[in-house]
């Protein structure tokens, strides 16, 4: 990824030229230094115009020929979204940023870029090019652009209309994004898919758009055959009607985002490859559509999974766990050092934690703690919920090894995680992330539409987790 791929960024060499204005990021504690930064008249203008230095508040300072400088209220820490209004609020032209202690340059660049994101124009002419604010990338800021690029790609996938982003298109997007980085990628379909992933086939049987499973493998340039193996699994339900247990109309409006887990895992895999981590990587995406037809799965069907365990279909709208279970079984066969899945799995997780706080489940306390601490450290939080085994009995079935839904109308995200746990190989460290992958309304740096949460948290935790396993084994 190069800086040139972001129209809102300029290489650092531009910062040494004339005509580049400065936006001063300032904390509440440093309000008294305004005059040192923008001059006495500039500081007086800001005070008279009501500038108070609140987080995200932008003040423009007059110059000889228009706006001469700007001041942004911030707080020290890892929050990139406080920089999210800059791209749309600063006057057009080149800008560089002066940061206070406690804020890393890559955090500011990331925030500027995600705030500049605009949903692609689908089915209409793109808006004509216009002059925009462009940020000169400071030293140490390029890493933020790499993360922003991964987020942009993931957001684009989620935001695509479902008629333009079906199972085949999602699988092709994975090929386009990963093969140029050296991944060996297979798209499994047809009879081979039905044999290898029977639950994926069963869920996808109702759609005219046949399911696909993406299996990608990659090794870093410094990764030998014994390098740690990371396995990622993503739910890629490109549209979810609910099947015969059909969703109400309002519940279907955002169901193009039901492939958000696949978008997050694909973005994460690409970031791992771009940064050439010294690991081995496997990625599996279940690309599918849950539709209604004469061939669709029915409530009370019984399916034999890849693992040999049988599942009674108690609800066709609990299809995500069926898409994941065969992929998790296959992933476990390689004995990965860490297995992570992500899915827009349950409304219960959103009821418990809201849209911005993904639910984390794990069978390993150290893995969970590493991800939670990494999320706190980079401003990408999660909240751990328990794998409460006493609730496993709620998944009993009189005709199969388990039901795909609980017999009780409680703890829906927990019982979904417990269902998945039944397909995790003994000894494999596993984390399951139940996320929303959507912004319901505009906020600084987070425009309405698809979102890629947990990317930064999980990425930051990967090497500490994998190296800890390496050290323990040696």
TrEMBL record:
GO terms for molecular function: manganese ion binding; metalloaminopeptidase activity. One of its GO terms (biological process) is proteolysis. The lineage of its organism: Bacteria, Pseudomonadati, Pseudomonadota, Alphaproteobacteria, Acetobacterales. This is Leucyl aminopeptidase family protein. GO terms for cellular component: cytoplasm. Pfam families: Peptidase_M17, Peptidase_M17_N_1. CDD domains: Peptidase_M17 (cd00433). Keywords: Aminopeptidase, Hydrolase, Manganese, Protease. Belongs to the peptidase M17 family. It comes from Gluconacetobacter asukensis. SUPFAM superfamilies: Zn-dependent exopeptidases. Residues 315-322 form the Cytosol aminopeptidase domain. InterPro entries: Leucine_aapep/pepB, Macro_dom-like, Peptidase_M17_C, Peptidase_M17_N_1.
